[in-house]
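Narrative of activities, Objective 1.

The group set out to show that a structural description can be obtained from nothing but a protein's sequence at a throughput compatible with the screening campaign. Below is one input-output pair from the validation batch, recorded exactly as produced.
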Amino acid sequence: MKNKVTIIGAGNVGATAAHWAAEKELADIVLVDIVDGMPQGKALDLMETRPVEDFDTKVIGTTDYKDTANSDIVVITSGVPRKPGMSRDELLDVNTKIVKNVTEQACKHSPNAILIMVANPLDAMCHVAKMVSKFPKHRVFGMAGILDTARFRCFVSMELSVSVEDIQAMVLGGHGDDMVPLPRYTTVAGVPITELMSKEKIDAIVSRTRKAGGEIVALLKTGSAYYSPSAAVVQMVESVLKDKKRVVPCAAYLEGEYGIRDLYVGVPIKIGTVGVEQIIELKLSDDEKAALNKSANAVRELVQLIKL
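Output recorded for this entry:
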């Protein structure tokens, strides 16, 4: 039986994720939105792409959650995007209501699905999905660290004029301005970047990584990033469906790891067929621990404001 992936939200992130996933032939895809005609039109457009790009993925668009029944994975991208000058925290109330509603509908029709959160503020929305779904923690996690790490790797590549394929990096913490890029765990073909560029250059790249989402929002003026977030979540979907055991940073529910309890925070995890198979604990310096705790506290303050 072919795998089935539902993507809730047919805006830029959701539709582009459907595009990446369809081209990879990962599963049949259901694209859901409340705006009648939009998911259907985008799904049909993708279907008509198949003869050109040579893939046979079935894509349907719908406003009816009955069409999502028995999905293996549900990706939640729905919510209001950030506008220029708007913080992720300001999105909290409106997106809590949206995520609560779509999670209830998705879980009703796919009670055994894995939920992957993309809506912002990311870490807080993971809490909403977990509380509403009552799913075990390994089946509810969020896309954040993959995107933040990709941005970090991109900026290192741009600075050193080397292939992104040779760069490994790690970004921990909440998906916001307090995220924690780790230069000590960032290498180019195994060589630490601390040996390849000055501290001032590294600090500038770390700062740009933290502000990367806002940089794109400011440039676009009428929206937020979607190519990179959608590619990042599809990497997670692929690791689940192919049981790839990828070790990547994602928003996972911690119960004492890194000294943090009862909170979604970005940490490296192993992703396989059941979802989160393992949380990888890195050895952190005192400064790194302090930065991670600061980021986690910012997430906790936000979670305490959630009203369900």
